[in-house]
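Structure (tokenized):
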């Protein structure tokens, strides 16, 4: 049922892909020409790989879900950089979000709700203590969140706790289509052992949103945010077919269990587009 409804959670481990320059160029050549400069601008090979795989995931997912021929897929971006599909009639609010950090590149899609995905790599800070490192981000956290982080336990647990909050905030902002200027301090997360996660926006609980956290491996976390289309920022709202969703549709989408990610290889993605 989920497969039919346009719900996807895909993940690629880029450390398993070691392409020759020719293989990299062949994969990039599958994409529309206007997508390639955004990949080529990166200096480091890993950054180029993440940028390429992110776009391969987008085109492969749209092709897979909506059966649109590759040359007819028209992915645009809002002024804030949120990708969206132009001229999509199969699902009125079909939307997707990508994220990449560390070893993983991922994508999540939904047919009705807004969806946001964020992946974080829990890397130990270099040249400073964990407390010094997270202090750099204190202005983005509420007093409640800061207190929970500092009392999480060992240095490693404090760092992981910080990244959990950060991951959730980023997923929410990305789901809305907001830009980097959105005030993360306006968001406060509450949870029961990182389940039953809820968000307060400017002190008010937002009942039309749900959140999930996943441990991808010892070093990586991912979060999913799902919410009402009416909460999209104005530039992203215009990209959606409709922001009016019935209560039943919304509840059904929000209450459906969150599935684990499906692991794809780059070879599988490129084969699906050839």
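Design, position by position:
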């Amino acid at each position: 049922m989920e497969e039919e409804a346009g719900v996807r959670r895909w993940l690629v481990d880029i450390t398993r892909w070691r392409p020759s320059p020719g293989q990299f160029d062949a994969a990039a050549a599958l994409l529309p020409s206007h997508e390639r400069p955004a990949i080529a601008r990166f200096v480091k090979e890993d950054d180029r790989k993440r940028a390429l795989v992110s776009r391969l995931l987008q085109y492969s997912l749209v092709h897979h879900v909506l059966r649109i021929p590759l040359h007819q897929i028209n992915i645009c971006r809002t002024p804030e950089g949120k990708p969206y599909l132009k001229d999509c009639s199969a699902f009125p609010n079909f939307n997707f979000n990508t994220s990449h950090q560390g070893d993983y590149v991922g994508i999540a899609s939904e047919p009705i709700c807004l969806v946001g995905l964020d992946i974080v790599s829990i890397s130990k800070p270099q040249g400073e203590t964990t407390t010094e490192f997270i202090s750099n981000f204190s202005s983005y956290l509420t007093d409640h969140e800061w207190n929970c982080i500092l009392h999480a336990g060992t240095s490693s647990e404090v760092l992981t706790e910080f990244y959990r909050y950060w991951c959730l905030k980023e997923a929410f902002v990305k789901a809305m289509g907001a830009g980097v200027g959105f005030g993360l301090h306006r968001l406060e997360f509450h949870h029961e052992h990182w389940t039953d996660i809820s968000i307060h926006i400017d002190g008010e609980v937002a009942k039309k949103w749900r959140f999930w956290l996943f441990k991808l491996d010892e070093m990586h976390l991912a979060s999913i945010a799902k919410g009402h289309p009416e909460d999209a920022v104005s530039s992203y709202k215009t990209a959606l077919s409709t922001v009016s969703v019935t209560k039943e549709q919304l509840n059904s989408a929000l209450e459906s269990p969150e599935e684990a990610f499906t692991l794809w290889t780059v070879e599988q993605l490129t084969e699906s587009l050839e």
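Reviewer-requested clarification: The radius of gyration is 19 Å. The longest strand covers residues 209-217.
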